[in-house]
Each structure stands twice: as C-alpha cells, then as structure tokens.
Amino acid sequence: MDILSSILHSLHLSGSLWCRTEARAPWSMQFDKMDVAQFHFIRRGSSWFQMEGMGEPLLMASGDLIVLPHGHAHILSDQLNTKPVSLNEWKEKLKPCEKGPLIIGGQGTSTTLLCGYFEFDRGEVHPLLSVLPSFIYIKGEEGGSVPWLETTLNFIYSEADSGQPGSQTVITRLADILFIQIIRQYIDNPVNNRRGWLAGLKDPQIGSALEYIHLNPEKPWNLNSLSGTVGMSHASFSAKFKQVIGESPFKYLTRWRMHTAANYLKNPNSSLSEATEQVGYESEAAFSKTFKRYLGMGPGKYRRTFHQAG
C-alpha cells in the first residue's frame, strides 16, 4: 500500500447522499456549514458559486465540479442577485430525490446539478483534510485530464435516474472512486503543492520518509534512523523536513501515530495494550499521556466515547 492509499484508507468514508436537482430560473440555494465534504457537479447549464471569504464569485459551467472539503456555508444561484432559499436541513429535503429529481425555482432556464457529500469519521483532524483548501474547483476541461472523473459523475447521475434495485449501494460504492479522483486531480496540480504534506509527497527524500512513517508507525523511529533511510544527514533531513512539511519529523511522526491509534481504538475488539504496540510505544502510560495531549482525552475514554456514540 502506497502512502496516498494509506491516507485515503484511514479516512473511513462512511456515507454519502446524492441528489439530482433541476433548478429553473430564478433559483438560489443556500447551504449552511456542515460537518461533511459537500460537492456539486454541473451536468447541464450554469451556476454562480459564492462563499464568504473567497473573493470574486465563480460562474460554473456544464462539466464543472466544486468540492468543499470542510463543508463551509455557500450559495449556488442562477444570478448573483437572486434571493437564496436556506436549506438548513438539506439532508431531509433531499430524501425525495430517491424517487426523482429535486425541482426548485421558477419557470425559466434550467440547470441540472448533481449534489451530494462525502462523510468521514471525524473523531480527530485528519492529515489529508487538514491540508485541503476551503474549496476545490475542477473545470470541465480540466476534468478531461482525469479520464474517469466525468465518466464516474455521469454514471452516478444515470444510476440515480434509473431507479434500479441496488442503485443506492452502487452509488455509495462510487463515492470512494470519485473522492480519490478528486484528490489525485488536486495533488497533480503543482500550484497546490508548494508546501505541506502534499508537497512532501512530491519530494523524493521527504516523500520516502513519509512513506516509512505512514506504513510503519510501530517501528522505533528516531531522527538518525529516519534520515538514514533516505540517505541524508540528520541535520539536513530535519531542516528540509520542517521546511517542506511545516513541522519537525518527530512532531509529524507523533501526530500520525496518534491518528493511527485513534483509528485502531474504533475497533470494538481493540485494547489499550495493542494500541500501544501498534504505534511503537513500550509504555502504556507514555502512550496514554501523548494520546490525551493530541486528542483531548485518554485512549480509554476515547474508545468508550466513540462506541457509545456509535
């Protein structure tokens, strides 16, 4: 398993909702902030996209896709001056979409959208989500460089339109594929990889170190052993790692270990001793202290809280 696969696997995509929307001018939808990654695909027509703090609004055209990794509040509309209708409980409002498209607006020009969200386990800040921007905008012509992106979106739309038995299961399975394609597209754009975790993936030496950390968190890593695996002196490695990633190798290692441990503790059959070993700690006390510093509660309480919530 490569480092990106490891990161994506640890996201635990746990649910998604898809809705075909027929919006007829005049129309405007206001989406409140949600603890999910929302997305909108313009299948036909156009839509303005507005979000607080983004600067100039975006005019999205047919084939364009926008994703909001952190679920920020935003507005979609036919015109910038159209009064928005709030969809505070949009999950509930989209339930009828299982039987057909959601039809909104007036009697004017029609825009066809595919709206939905990716839902993840959110017990802690995920390394991937933490480096993603407030929104990712993929124009139709850019999506063409990822052969399966538009194909997947159109397949989802057709599957939702078919009403065939098992359609929801098929659509949900496609969520993994679609999200991976979106992340790949984002990573492949060099403008997005100037600094941070994504930049580290593109750097041969730092990328190798990240792979060792992610795939082997249980090993007794230290600065010398990590720098040695990538053929650098510990001083040069430490300086370059911090310059590219934005934090020291040890801090990054510890954060990834705690993220790994948190995921492990979500297993109802897990134990504190096993979690301690899984991330390279010999002392349960030392592990528990570090876990609490990063997650805000001890591993035992975290495990109980997670399973009570589930």
What characteristics describe this protein?
single chain; 310 residues; alpha+beta; Jelly Rolls; Arc Repressor Mutant, subunit A; 2 domains; six-stranded mixed β-sheet; five-stranded mixed β-sheet; 14 helices; 11 strands; 20% strand
What does this structure look like?
By secondary structure, this protein is α+β, with helices and mostly antiparallel strands. The protein is elongated and about 65 Å long. Strand 4 and strand 5 (58-61) form a beta hairpin. The model has no long low-confidence stretch (mean pLDDT 85). The protein has helices at 3-9, 90-93, 127-131, 140-143, 147-162, 167-188, 197-202, 204-215, 223-229, 234-245, 249-265, 272-278, 284-295, 299-309; strands at 13-24, 28-31, 37-44, 46-50, 58-61, 65-68, 74-77, 85-86, 102-105, 110-120, 136-138. Helix 9 packs across helix 10 (234-245). It has two domains: 3-192, Regulatory protein AraC (Jelly Rolls), CATH 2.60.120.280; 197-309, Arc Repressor Mutant, subunit A. The two termini are 28 Å apart. The strands form two sheets. A six-stranded mixed beta sheet has the order 9-1-10-3-6-11. Strands 5-4-7-2-8 form a five-stranded mixed beta sheet, with no helix packed on it.
Concise account of the structure shown:
This protein has helices at 3-9, 90-93, 127-131, 140-143, 147-162, 167-188, 197-202, 204-215, 223-229, 234-245, 249-265, 272-278, 284-295, 299-309; strands spanning 13-24, 28-31, 37-44, 46-50, 58-61, 65-68, 74-77, 85-86, 102-105, 110-120, 136-138.
